[in-house]
Structures are given as structure tokens and as C-alpha cells.
Amino acid sequence: MNARTEPALLEPAHTLSNAHLDALEEETIFILREVAASFERPTLLFSGGKDSLVLLKCAEKAFGAGRIPYPLLMIDTGHNFHEVTDFRDQRAAELKAELIVRNVEDSMARGTVRLAHPGESRNVHQSVTLLEAIEEFRFDGLIGGARRDEEKARAKERIFSHRDSFGQWQPKAQRPELWTLFNTRLAPGEHFRVFPISNWTELDVWQYIEREQIELPSLYYAHQREVVERRGLLVPVTPLTPAKDGEKVESRTVRFRTVGDITCTCPVASDAATPGAIVIETLAADVSERGATRMDDKTSEASMEKRKKDGYF
Questions:
Q1: For the chain, what is the mean pLDDT?
Q2: Residue 193: what pLDDT?
Q3: Reported pTM
Q4: Interior CA angle at 294 toward 293 and 298, to 5°?
Q5: How does residue 271 score in pLDDT terms, banded at 50, 70 and 90?
Q6: Where in the chain are the domains?
Q7: Are the C-beta atoms of residues 182 and 159 closer than 8 Å to each other?
Q8: pLDDT, tens digit, 9 for 90 and up, residues 85-124
Q9: Alpha helices, DSSP H, located in the chain
Q10: Are 228 and 248 in contact (CB under 8 A)?
Q11: How far apart are CA 77 and CA 65, in angstroms?
Q12: Residues 13-203+302-309, CATH architecture
């Protein structure tokens, strides 16, 4: 064997991985600082989920604990897992960050959100409450943890995604982002959605969580839960999502790859109880998080691109 090649062959895998994560982290921190410098009233969308917790960790590194220069904002459907909302509140308090919560239920009370029937998922209606919060606080830059590998419509979107005065995204009128130069010019009433971890993958996120020892809500790790099989998904049995006639309720060891509204978020069968175990499991996954776990992404009427054009994040 050529002696000149031996060091490369013997180099530990985690060294290469850490270099990759360092580059992603550096890019994210640069974008977070760019938002702080470019906008008058930015906010960071924070749900308490894994992607927003990674984003918050990068913000902490960019500015320091207690010094994040924009508030955290969550749009709460009222049907979120309490483990996630409790963790959200805990993490915001630890960082001494301002947390703003706006509720879909308040939009329902105002009549700006009307459900087709009481059992309809409120997930898609978050866009209305979000646009109301933007108007209330006059936010001009909203930072979120969406990634391009999650879904095809997200893959089309720029890191700095321009939204018109109606909060709508126009995919055919996106501004170029050559050489990481971002065009942040706004007309009155317009705003930007900014996605600093666009270039991360689900695997990158879990490797970063493992490296940085980021705490997460317990739902992300293997636990026992009653579920039913429905349309190829494991649907959690809850008061909001009860078993239907003829369905067999089973207790399975599962975890959530993504956490959203209870009415549309499903776990996957898994024994992975640590970030390292999830990294290994993710390497073998051949379906995206949303494709494997979201009931509301199974129908064309609820396509992500249509939602984004209507103001969804």
C-alpha cells in the first residue's frame, strides 16, 4: 500500500463529519447575523422541535445566551404535544429569550379561521394566525428551521424567501442568491422568510444534536405508545385521533421523526433511544420525515407548494 495514502484511510470518520458540520454551522451563524443586520423587526420561529432547537443553538453561538436580538415566535394550534410545548417554554426561559405565542384558537374566535368540521386538522390554518402575528408585530424577517431535503416545494425555495404584502410566495419570481449575496429589499407590507439550515439534511441535524448534546423533547426517542395502522402510517391513539371502528390498537415501540399538530403527525417504529442510534437509523431511511410521518401531506389538496403560496411557512 502506498504510504502516502495511509493517513487518509486511517482518519476517523467523525473527524470528517465534524468538518462538514462546522461548515454548516458557520453558514447558519452567518445567516442569523445577516438577518439581525438587515431587518428592523425580525423574529425566530420556535416550536420546540428538533430543527428549531438546532437553529436556537446556532443563534446562541452567534449572539450568546440572553443576547439573541430577536424574539421567539410560535403559532400554536392548540393540538400540540404537551411534551413539546413544555420543552419550548423551558428552553426559552433558560436562554432568557422573549417568547411570543399566538393561537389558532384565537383566530377561530375572531372568525378569521373557520373549520369545515370540528375534527378538521388545524395545521393548515396556522398560516392565517401567522399572518395576523406578522401584522400585529410588523415583523419583516421570520427565521425558520425548514430544510430543502424535507419536501419538494421546500427544495425550490431560496434561503431568503421573499413574501408579498399578502404573505404569499411566488416561486417563479424568486430573487437570485449568487455568491451568498442576499437581496433583502422590501416594499411596505412585505417580508422575508429566512431558512438558515436550508442546506442541512435530517442526518446532519441528528449528527449535530449528538455532537452538541442538544436536549430534545422525549417524543423524539423510542417509547411505548398505542397506535393503529392507517394508510401505511402508525397513527397515535389520542383523544384527538381515536381508533376507528374495526382498527386494532397495538402498543408499539416508536419515536417521532418530526413533531407537529397531533392530528396529522405520526411516529415510526423504532428502538433508537439516543442521537447516535438515530444517526444510524437515519442512514438507512429511504423516505423523508414528512413522507413517513405526516397525514396531511398525503393529499394533493394539502400540497406544500399550495400552502406556501397561501402564506404557510
A1: 87
A2: 94
A3: 0.86
A4: 120
A5: very high
A6: 13-203+302-309, 217-298
A7: yes
A8: 999 999 999 999 999 999 999 999 999 999 998 888 888 8
A9: 6-10, 13-38, 50-63, 82-94, 104-110, 126-137, 152-156, 202-212, 275-283, 289-293, 304-309
A10: yes
A11: 28
A12: 3-Layer(aba) Sandwich (3.40)
